[in-house]
Design goal:
Belongs to the phosphohexose mutase family. Catalyzes the conversion of GlcNAc-6-P into GlcNAc-1-P during the synthesis of uridine diphosphate/UDP-GlcNAc, which is a biosynthetic precursor of chitin and also supplies the amino sugars for N-linked oligosaccharides of glycoproteins. Pfam families: AMG1_II, AMG1_III, PGM_PMM_I, PGM_PMM_IV. Keywords: Carbohydrate metabolism, Cell wall biogenesis/degradation, Isomerase, Magnesium, Metal-binding, Phosphoprotein. The protein is of the alpha/beta class. The protein has four domains: 179 residues, 3-Layer(aba) Sandwich (Alpha-D-Glucose-1,6-Bisphosphate, Chain A, domain 3), CATH 3.40.120.10; 115 residues, Alpha-D-Glucose-1,6-Bisphosphate, Chain A, domain 3 (3-Layer(aba) Sandwich), CATH 3.40.120; 124 residues, Alpha-D-Glucose-1,6-Bisphosphate, Chain A, domain 3 (3-Layer(aba) Sandwich); 82 residues, 2-Layer Sandwich (TATA-Binding Protein). The protein is built from 18 helices and 19 strands. Strand 6, helix 8 and strand 7 form a beta-alpha-beta unit. Helix 3 packs antiparallel against helix 4 and helix 7 packs antiparallel against helix 14. It binds 1,6-di-O-phosphono-alpha-D-glucopyranose (G16). 1,6-di-O-phosphono-alpha-D-glucopyranose binds next to loops.
Length: 552
Amino acid sequence: MAQTIDCDKIKELSAKYPKLKEINYTYGTAGFRMKAEYLESVIFRVGILAGLRSRKLDSKFIGIMVTASHNPEADNGVKLVDPSGEMLEQQWESYATQLANAQSDDELINVIKSVISQNGIDESKKASVVYARDTRPSGPKLIAALEDGIKAISAVGENLGIKTTPQLHYFTYYLNYCEKPTEGSCDELADKVYYEKFSKAFQKAVGDNQRLSDIYVDAANGVGAPKLKDLAQWIDKLNDNIFKVTIINDDTDTRGKLNFQCGADYVKTGQKPPLALNLACEQRAASLDGDADRIVFYYVDEDGTFRLLDGDKIAALSAGFIIELVKTACLDISVGVVQTAYANGSSTAYLERELAFPVSCVPTGVKHLHHKAQEYDVGVYFEANGHGTVLFSSKALDKINSDGSRTTEQEKAIKKLQALTELINQTVGDALSDLLLVESILINRQWTFKKWNSVYTDKPNRLVKVVVADRQIFKTTNAERTLVEPNGLQEKIDKLVAQYKDGRSFVRPSGTEDVVRVYAEASTREDCDQLAFKVAGLVYDEAGGTGGRPSE
Ligand code: G16
């Protein structure tokens, strides 16, 4: 097959974005992520890769999201989305890494040619990409680099402007498998199809049930704020007495506020409410992260204790509700749950023992959970940090949507299941869709947060970040629960863990931040904190910790 890429055009545009020699880029847990000033060359090259992937997949749209999600405002990142709206196929992650690390323009051309020949790409095909960004100040400059990359590979790009990450995932799927827009801007259409789909599905899922109390949503001063506001208005148009939300931390204009002392990661890690939220007893609240792909819920008890309802609790709530509907409807559908090592021990025990679900544990990263969840008829996956969704296989959808004679009760259960399949964003974890999913289940059950929280009691747990000279020296196995390197460190951790009742701890390098993460749980809060900081201290000493030694 003749090579027809325009090497001169690629070189000319690439010269604007030289690779920084000293940096070795890796496609991590959620794409490339680091300080925004190091990313221009990477993003330019991601534009090229997206064009190649589109040609490989019969000109289907490939999605590109420019975001660093929960990371500090000064960071940014980029990830690719496959035509189905799911994460980029793993084989192509290595192409992304090779392209990002090509030192010279000639090397870049060689990598491009090698991707083309390895994949038998027909260069005469049209290439289509669709892209969006979050509200970070570095976004526009990076989008300009991306657009040059798209131009360099002669692809056609649709700019969606500012969107949540899950909106970009959903709209990539929509462009490929639903109606192709004939006129109007894709930016506006992407909002419209999203709000329409989820508001209508929510209406179906809640039926005639009574609304619950108002909910406060901390939007991390990110893109979730304007998008949730719009979505709530669409819901109001259908039924103005079912969902009352007050959005806080909604300032997307003031520099320095994104994810600062607010948002899902801050709340989950610190196990405390965000800035600007004084919660009354049992007031319902939730936090999104900077690109609205994760959510955690919380409230405070009569005695002022902060109660977190994290991804594990969302999994228990949704899996429990779905299996009940499946049983009522007498459908032959299996439901399984996928977690990571961060799942609280009590949640795994509850899911396996009380609800009798098969539960699998995979490495951190939605891409790993998503793939495992596809092995079940209905796969429920949530990371403890609030990132997740539910996948309905085509077998499950066929059964749920098939005709047949049914009792009224069975028919009602089927209708609810159908509504859930529409309400859940099955392309990726989506904070807004998950918010509506949780709210609709609680409305159907007429449950307070306190009642939801009581399904099982979390073991005290703690997450600590350790800054070390080189986090890449940490290598794990056993779904990240065991350290293989540095040599001998796991044995030391095991010895510490053995000193605590119901103790558990693991260490893994983050794939999105320049830190090593330490997780610990034990039977009491005091033990758990002590274990977490002792393990963090071990990591700090063994790996040449930089910055302060972790302490409570
Ligand atoms: C991303 C991934 C999540 C992962 C999180 C933290 O979330 O999509 O799957 O749990 O990073 O990953 P790590 O511990 O490797 O830093 P987000 O919300 O930042 O896109």
